[in-house]
Write a structure and sequence with these properties.
With about 180 residues, the chain is α+β, with helices and mostly antiparallel strands. It contains three helices and ten strands, in the order αβββαββαβββββ. InterPro entries: Host-nuc_inhib_Gam (IPR009951).
Length: about 180
């Protein structure tokens, strides 16, 4: 591939335009005014578009909330505890309340399980394995032997309906 080195001296340059009289100076001011007017019009158009988008968003958000209300009302009327609905445009399912565990006070857990396989030699709790052996009963975390475990917090995820739709052209379900 050939590389050309073109210096500024080899290429003739066009003469730069310059104001020669008062008429041309006035013409420049006129062009500046035109450019400023275009900028102002563009800013006005953007502001109007933002205002319109905000109104549409508010109206459509109200519509979405209203339709979600209809769906939740209909779902609450279903008598089957395991009822769910899947249609071509959306689905409704009920998330039952469930409790999960998270590590609270690791030092207490290490102390409680110090002589077990759940505490690794570097004195770090093997939370993943320990968690598999623990259960939640009466608001307390207990071992398989019934021993109450301190240092674990119980998190409760509230029960509630989930409404999802599958927007046209989208991949997968999206919460509404």
């Amino acid at each position: 591939m050939e590389v050309f080195n073109v210096s500024a001296q080899e290429e003739p340059q066009e003469e730069r335009w310059a104001i020669k009289n008062e008429a041309e100076a006035n013409w420049c001011f006129y062009k500046i005014e035109q450019a400023q007017a275009k900028i102002a019009q563009a800013q006005k158009t953007v502001a109007e578009a933002k205002e319109f988008a905000a109104k549409v968003k508010a109206q459509e958000s109200e519509a979405i909330d209203r339709f979600k209300g209809y769906l939740l009302e209909w779902a609450d009327q279903q008598e089957d505890d395991d009822w769910s609905f899947v249609g071509p445009a959306g689905k409704i399912s009920f998330d039952k309340e469930r409790q999960t565990m998270t590590k609270g006070n690791e030092a207490k857990l290490i102390n409680q399980f110090a002589n077990t396989d759940y505490v690794k030699k570097l004195v770090k709790l093997d939370w993943g394995e320990l968690k598999k052996t623990l259960t939640i009963a009466n608001g307390k975390v207990i071992t398989a032997d019934g021993e109450v475990v301190e240092g674990v917090k119980i998190n409760t995820k509230a029960a509630g309906w989930k409404i999802k739709n599958k927007p046209e052209g989208a991949h997968g379900w999206h919460e509404v």
